From TrEMBL:
<keyword id="KW-0411">Iron-sulfur</keyword>
<keyword id="KW-0223">Dioxygenase</keyword>
<dbReference type="GO" id="GO:0051213">
    <property type="term" value="F:dioxygenase activity"/>
</dbReference>
<keyword id="KW-0479">Metal-binding</keyword>
<dbReference type="InterPro" id="IPR036922">
    <property type="entry name" value="Rieske_2Fe-2S_sf"/>
</dbReference>
<dbReference type="InterPro" id="IPR001663">
    <property type="entry name" value="Rng_hydr_dOase-A"/>
</dbReference>
<keyword id="KW-0001">2Fe-2S</keyword>
<dbReference type="InterPro" id="IPR015879">
    <property type="entry name" value="Ring_hydroxy_dOase_asu_C_dom"/>
</dbReference>
<dbReference type="Pfam" id="PF00848">
    <property type="entry name" value="Ring_hydroxyl_A"/>
</dbReference>
<dbReference type="GO" id="GO:0051537">
    <property type="term" value="F:2 iron, 2 sulfur cluster binding"/>
</dbReference>
<keyword id="KW-0408">Iron</keyword>
<feature type="domain" description="Rieske">
    <location>
        <begin position="49"/>
        <end position="164"/>
    </location>
</feature>
<comment type="similarity">
    <text>Belongs to the bacterial ring-hydroxylating dioxygenase alpha subunit family.</text>
</comment>
<dbReference type="GO" id="GO:0005506">
    <property type="term" value="F:iron ion binding"/>
</dbReference>
<dbReference type="InterPro" id="IPR017941">
    <property type="entry name" value="Rieske_2Fe-2S"/>
</dbReference>
<dbReference type="Pfam" id="PF00355">
    <property type="entry name" value="Rieske"/>
</dbReference>
<protein>
    <submittedName>
        <fullName>Anthranilate 1,2-dioxygenase large subunit/terephthalate 1,2-dioxygenase oxygenase component alpha subunit</fullName>
    </submittedName>
</protein>
Amino acid sequence: MTAQTISISKLNNLKTWPSEGVSRAPYWVYTDPEIYLLEQANIFRGNAWHYLGMNAEVPETGDYKTTYIGDTSVLMVRAEDGSINGMVNRCAHRGNMVCRDAFGKAESLYCVYHAWNYDLKGNLKNAAFSRGIRGEGGLPKDFDKANHGLTKLRTEVLCGLVFATFSQTVEPLEEWLGEVAYGIKRLLTRPLKILGYDTQRIKSNWKNYHENPRDSYHANILHTFYGTFGLSRQSQESGMVLDKKGRHSCFYTKAGTEKNDANYQNTTSELRSHNDQLKLEDPSILKWVDEIGDGVSVQILSAYPSFVLHQIANSLATRQLLPKGQNQCDLVWTYFGFADDDEQTTQRRLIQINLAGSAGMISVEDAAVCEMTYRAIADGQVGNSFIEMGGVDLTSGGSSKLSERAIRNFWHNYRQDMNL
Ligand code: FES
Ligand SMILES: [Fe+2]
């Protein structure tokens, strides 16, 4: 490669999607701050559902949780009628943040700046001094409180998971999830119980991470623990389900179903991640109990654009992906079990939580490769990733885990939403 200089106009011309389509992703789409701003409008405030949390996090009237959809601070609040209501956490007066704590309990939503006060569904109840004093000041006579509530989000709960959207036109949540909703219903059969949280800042673009749980190809190559200790291997019975629009993916693997395959044997001898010599001092972390009875030991479900639900052995967690500028993102892990788990089951989940999270035996490498990838592509040079495992289009690769089909489908939906 020879050194080249380029002009501003040529640089802008270079920002066209490669002619190969969804089997390529240009590196500028991860690093360009203008793209980041467009994503906020077209994806995060666009036609998509976003995970806010669990109904178990706001069990009683007045309980609230603050979180984000993209860059927008949002609230989910339990109202008197038991409903959970998503709304933008920004006062309708002059934009102050209404709730500051991560979690809280309130009789109403009170803005400290000028005491505008909202009910638990975000409707304005009172505005301080709205009638003025001694005939002076105050709000206009035709001020109608009904027009000055918090911005309300469409909110739905599926199996205890709360999602919200800015869109009035996107399909209802379950329809939007399509075939992949089964991965939620299969797993979340009972009321949930929160076990803990873990948030990690990843110094990469949010899409570097979003591609990762859609990429089953890397699972037992990058992750030594998966292959070596047999929780997930390419030689096991496994598969992938996408919804019809290809927005969402769900991978599953059944431990203990290895089939002898010469290609696998030949490949493992080259994999640094498959090490028959390694043994665990305490193998209790591997004591998986088939709670559902379908043999699935690992299920990784990824919903466009920012949600993951995992079952890794008996550990269960949601991962909420929050972009923080084009060059970093937060990944919020919520570990959970079920309200009726016995002590032994809770202990098993707590031990196996060590598999996941920012320092987990399995997932520690994911953030590391996202950061390494971002460092390698963020130099402004023209280039693109190569996404041809299993084929080049949206259907090729079928349900095989040795395929990048789910990533090609992500880019297809992303390009549609972004008009790229
Ligand atoms: S900004 Fe909230 S009351 Fe003024
Ligand atoms: Fe991974």
